Amino acid sequence: MKMNKTSIQVRYQETDMMGVVYHANYLIWFEIGRTAFLEDLGFKYHEIEKQGVVSPVMDASVSFKHPVRYGDDVSVNTWVDEYDGLRITYSYQVQHATGEIAVEGQTKHVIVKKDNFRPVSIRRNFPEWHHAYLSALETSE
């Protein structure tokens, strides 16, 4: 499978009173990784939106393994875990520079029309995007 690795340097404002990254910030980092993954596939999210569609999150899960603190250098590894022509599941790992996994998660998305939020088939309406997802699932890296 194709994977994107995006570097993140933890900023002070991302931490809580315990000195660790506040849990909601991982969802922001997942979004950063997902956007970078799409760019690796050759698509820019803002260009996709110009076609009248958006990709809302339908479900999200986060599992915390080890704390991440201010000043840490981590990476967000992002890949497509499942794709059926309509729904996409992205998986993520936030990894310390040492290789230790800090956080794992998934977000599930569907492509919808921006004006009415009705689902859109990627397979039918965006064949280049569809083939890019299929290729990303098959790519061995």
TrEMBL record:
Top-level lineage group: Bacteria
Q: Which family does it belong to?
A: Belongs to the 4-hydroxybenzoyl-CoA thioesterase family.
Q: From the UniProt annotation, give the residues forming the signal peptide.
A: none
GO molecular-function term, one example from the UniProt record: hydrolase activity
Enzyme Commission no: 3.1.2.-
Q: What is the recorded name of this protein?
A: Acyl-CoA thioesterase
Q: Which PROSITE patterns match?
A: 4HBCOA_THIOESTERASE (PS01328)
Q: Which SUPFAM superfamilies match?
A: Thioesterase/thiol ester dehydrase-isomerase
Main EC class of this protein? hydrolase
List the keywords (alphabetical).
Hydrolase
